[in-house]
Amino acid sequence: MGANVHRLDDLRNAAQAKKHAIEIHPAGIDSAGGGGDDGGMESRVKALEDANLETRDRLARIETRFDTLATKADLSDLRGAVRADLSDLRGTVGENLSDLRGAVNAGLSDLRGATSEGTADLRAEFRKDMNAQTWKLVTFVCSFGSALVGATYFVARYVH
């Protein structure tokens, strides 16, 4: 944008320089009494014609640029197309999210079922192992107690 501002300033300065070059001074205008040309008219007309050609070229370039710009109708059509695409996208994302939510819920349900079955199996196995360990401990305590009773009886009876 800065380059465009400098370009505009350059164009404005050039136009002012041309204006001063072709400026009509009251002393140079033919008066009604003399009848004739003061000699400066041809150069001023030539300068105006040159300025006119340059202005016409610039105007043609500007009009060419306008042909590539979007019109209000183009922007309105584009806005409608974007809104329609966004609406379609929202619908698609919503459907995909719903499908994903269903798949996650189904996976979690399966995981809960597998965890419950695994936990029940683990509890049964734990109870079985605890029962076996308990009877081993009871057997050991009874055997050791009986051995101690027997040793005490032997010591009391035979050792004095």
In short:
It contains 3 helices and no strands. The chain is mostly helical and 160 residues long.
Describe the structure.
This protein is mainly α and 160 residues long. The protein has a domain at 2-25 and 37-69. It contains three helices and no strands. The chain has helices at 2-21, 41-68, 72-158. The longest helix is centred in the C-terminal third of the chain and has 87 residues, at 72-158. The chain is rod-shaped and about 165 Å long.
| End-to-end distance | 121 Å
Structural class: mainly alpha
Q: Please state roughly what percent of the residues sit in beta strands, choosing from under 5%, 5-15%, 15-25%, 25-35%, 35-45% or over 45%.
A: under 5%
The coarse silhouette is: rod-shaped
Largest sheet: none
Percent helix? over 70%
Sequence-ordered SSE layout with sheet pairings:
Blueprint: H1 2-21, H2 41-68, H3 72-158
Summary keywords:
84% helix; 3 helices; rod-shaped; 160 residues; mainly alpha
